[in-house]
Specification:
The protein is built from 17 helices and 16 strands. It is of the alpha/beta class and 481 residues long. It has two domains: 280 residues, Zn peptidases (Aminopeptidase); 145 residues, Glucose Oxidase, domain 1. An eight-stranded mixed sheet has the order 1-10-12-11-13-16-14-15. It is found in: Endoplasmic reticulum; Golgi apparatus; Lysosome; Secreted.
């Protein structure tokens, strides 16, 4: 099941970053009487929200808070003290900011540790191979693995090798970049594919279209019926070098050392703070969210502290402006997203009994917080029509899309069962240059872009939460996984 989840998750990430979704035609919409006029009346409120956040007293504050957070806690790997300290900090700060019902909810999560690791080409010449072990990979023996190399571009090419040819070797997969959704299967599945023929370890070209010698990590998925072998990502440049040399017939030997360990599952927490509704406190809640955890490289500013902070500050700034909607806006900072949506899965299970009454719409930002261009909306056709009217309120933004599929990773659990969803559209065409790498730092974040993203997030959530009607939904029952 995890293997299928991770494959879907990878494809979804690519959709969020690169695909244009179906556009709704507002002219074909039949809204309830008076609703179009009601939505139009929010224009002064929306304009005020943008003014306060983009050019008023809150300008620059999202970026400054994000800077201080990432500098203070650095990367926040699931199971680490740094993640849990960051969660404690968020709770204390939200209480100090006067948010309502600030608390955490526990989730049992994976606990993987990287340890020391290195790879070196030792024949036909010596060369360091910058690498990152893949999340949940097993380690090598203390002396490492020193083995001859097989290099292939695809699973189909690998099928041509017999088990005798593969036995004891390190297999290097160098798939051509065809977008994240199509290529990420090699990160997820290569270890088990190679181990099934007796490979000693696997190296995979990093999941990136562009590189300056930086490896990119991410979670793998072991087939439970196949022996687990060490797996790591190497740079695009080194992967291509190895492929060229193998194609020429060069015999190559690599020495790989990984101290990675999978420890017993541990307890982490989803983090919650609210702007409580004046009429509906615990029903028809509008959720705004991002994930608190990151990989253990870079500082996780782009993936996904930026998503956390536009959600957090959207609620904080609305409260400071004295804007309290009919329904509660609940900010959730998911834990353990990178290890397979573990925090969201647990939250869904914990809230499944009354979820149809409890939730209305789910927002999630997890594809960058670069210059915002609009929003992706998911839901049924009636929801699309209302979303299309709300989109008209947003100043200087016209990139809005509508789908009956999913637009988020953590919130995908709810979207697939019929809850409406919202995701940030932004100029993230270079997202995978930095994704899951040492390059994911504050240097990617721009104060003005974060202000506009926060304003768009806050204004849209406020209007949805304050409307006289809920966003329509067709929800199927929760089924335990």
């Amino acid at each position: 099941m995890l293997r299928e989840r991770l494959a879907f998750f990878g494809a979804l990430c690519a959709i969020l970053v690169s695909i244009n979704l179906v556009t709704a035609d507002p002219n074909e919409c039949e809204l309830p009487p008076g609703l179009r006029e009601e939505i139009a009346q929010y224009q002064p409120v929306v304009d005020s929200i943008f003014q306060h956040i983009v050019s008023g007293e809150y300008a620059g504050k999202t970026w400054q808070s994000l800077l201080e957070f990432t500098d203070r806690f650095g990367p926040r790997l699931t199971g680490s003290k740094q993640l849990e300290d960051a969660i404690d900090f968020a709770v204390q700060e939200m209480i100090a900011e006067g948010l309502d019902n600030v608390h955490t909810e526990e989730a049992i999560v994976s606990h993987w540790q990287r340890g020391r690791e290195w790879a070196e080409l030792v024949e036909p010449f010596q060369k360091n191979l910058p690498m990152l072990g893949l999340g949940k990979s097993v380690g090598t023996a203390p002396e490492g693995i020193r083995a001859e190399v097989i290099v292939v571009e695809s699973f189909e090419e690998f099928e041509n090798f017999t088990a005798d040819q593969v036995e004891g070797k390190i297999v290097v997969f160098v798939p051509a970049w065809a977008g994240y959704g199509a290529t990420v299967q090699y990160r997820s599945e290569s270890a088990s594919v190679a181990a099934n023929k007796g490979a000693a370890a696997v190296l995979v070209r990093s999941m990136a279209p562009f590189s300056i010698g930086t490896p990119h990590t991410g979670t793998l998925s072991y087939d439970p019926e196949v022996r687990r072998i060490p797996a790591a990502a190497i740079t695009v440049e080194d992967a291509m070098l190895l492929l060229r040399k193998y194609r020429r017939g060069d015999k190559m030997i690599i020495h790989l050392k990984m101290d990675a360990m999978n420890l017993d599952p541990t307890i982490s927490r989803n983090t919650i703070g609210e702007l409580e509704g004046h009429t509906f406190k615990n029903t028809s809640v509008v959720v705004v969210s991002g994930h608190m955890d990151s990989w253990d490289v870079g500082t996780g500013a782009m993936d996904d502290a930026g998503g956390v902070f536009i959600s957090w500050k959207a609620v904080t700034f609305l409260k400071a402006m004295g804007l309290r909607p009919r329904r509660t806006i609940r900010a959730i900072y998911w834990t353990a997203e990178e290890t397979g949506l573990e925090g969201a899965d647990e939250y869904e299970k914990q809230h499944s009994e009354d979820e149809k009454d409890e939730f209305n719409v789910f927002f999630e930002s997890d594809s960058g917080t670069f210059k915002p261009t609009g929003l992706d909306f998911s839901g049924n056709s009636n929801a699309h029509c209302i979303f299309a009217e709300i989109a008209k309120l947003m100043p200087c933004l016209n990139d809005f899309t509508y789908t009956e599929g999913t637009v988020g990773s953590d919130i995908g659990n709810w979207e697939r069962r019929g809850f409406p969803g919202v995701s940030l559209r932004n100029k993230n065409e270079n997202y995978f240059w930095y994704h899951h790498s040492e390059g994911d730092t504050m240097e990617l974040e721009d104060p003005d872009d974060l202000d506009r993203s926060t304003a768009l997030w806050a204004a849209t959530a406020y209007v949805i939460a304050d409307l006289s009607i809920d966003i329509p939904k067709d929800v199927t029952d929760y089924k335990p996984k």
